């Protein structure tokens, strides 16, 4: 299913459940602004290639547009629109003063040199110069983008406007105004939300067996935090495939990452050392990993992983969506029927954008907080968001996703009214 269509289905379901004012729905059915670009790049070998790029500014009723930039061979306008819509909902659930946006460049980062990536990032920033800014639209990292790339954006934008403007982008290197804690915020925040939900369900974290699809920045920091809390990581994957622990006693995430770094692959079942031992692990495809028995399934890679065709094969009773949009709208219905508790992306991974918000506040005021202070402030925001969502879930007897949308749509509606948009 088209990712944007799935996102709009979620919107419609929530609108029906809460009897949403038609004007709010009408405004939110389409993005406010879509920027579509073609960026020519003279590559190191002299050949010129033009890259498709996008920035979708979905809604700014609650504040400046906010959202990451993704570099991926399958990036498309449909996907970026959906991701920008989810940012709008996410920032409203977290109650931070932002609207929602997202950007993407259709490229395979493994096929470009660092110099080429820098050149393309700077030309993307020049093309968006009139649309982004600390009070207009603030990009951040997403799939395949990182602090170094954000640093190039901050530099290029500052040069263009003739003034140092680190607050134009978040997720920067700490040396140029990045925030302590931002790197770990999404994964650590996801763990915090899961731990709070487990408390509400009266489940012991130490008894939880966790399966993680995607061990990038988000999956890794989530794994670190959950392992420290005594949860057992029984399976992980990267873009090439995964492994699971046949013994079910849990993997050591750092040992695993070390081996991945030195040998390159997870799927080849290469593990070394006593903890990460090949005898005990079995190679498994990314799709199969989702269907293995565990207590908490954590899709932390890309959208549309759990759909109508595989939803009924999912065995986990809890899904924590650390990726954006990993469960599509048809699968949502099937999972709800099976009583699977889906902790939705717009809440589960909102630690990332809350971390970004705290970085932006520090930049605007010239502060620099220690990691502990940043993470404590982030936890306060996430606890309040979870509380609001849980209350709406119990009151309206709806799924957590619908409850999160209800909380967000109420807040968005109030802002639209406050500004006289509706
Ligand atoms: N890309 C992240 C997300 O999807 C973070 C966005 C941000 O920090 O602006 O939530």
Description:
The chain is α/β, with parallel strands linked by helices and 422 residues long. It has two domains: 31-176, Leucine Dehydrogenase, chain A, domain 1 (Rossmann fold), CATH 3.40.50.10860; 179-422, NAD(P)-binding Rossmann-like Domain (Rossmann fold). It contains 15 helices and twelve strands. It has helices at 3-18, 22-28, 77-94, 114-127, 147-161, 182-200, 217-228, 253-263, 286-291, 308-311, 329-337, 345-348, 351-365, 371-396, 400-418; strands at 33-42, 48-59, 65-72, 100-106, 137-141, 209-213, 232-238, 241-245, 281-284, 296-299, 318-320, 341-343. Strands 9-8-7-6-10-11-12 form a seven-stranded mixed beta sheet. A five-stranded mixed beta sheet has the order 1-2-4-3-5. Strand 7 and strand 8 (241-245) form a beta hairpin. Helix 1 runs parallel beside helix 3, helix 6 (182-200) runs parallel beside helix 14 and helix 14 (371-396) packs across helix 15 (400-418). Mean pLDDT is 94; it is low at 270-277. Bound molecules: glutamic acid. Glutamic acid (GLU) is lined by residues 66-68, 140, 142, 170, 324, 349, 352-353, 356.
Q: Hetero groups bound?
A: glutamic acid
Strand order of the largest sheet: 9-8-7-6-10-11-12
SS class: alpha/beta
Order of helices and strands: HHEEEHEHEHHEHEEHEHEHEHEHHHH
Radius of gyration: 21 Å
Give structural attributes.
Rossmann fold, 17% strand, 46% helix, five-stranded mixed β-sheet, seven-stranded mixed β-sheet, 2 domains, binds glutamic acid, 15 helices, alpha/beta, 422 residues
In short:
The chain has 15 helices and 12 strands. The protein is α/β, with parallel strands linked by helices and 422 residues long. It has 2 domains: 31-176, Rossmann fold (3-Layer(aba) Sandwich); 179-422, NAD(P)-binding Rossmann-like Domain (Rossmann fold), CATH 3.40.50.720.
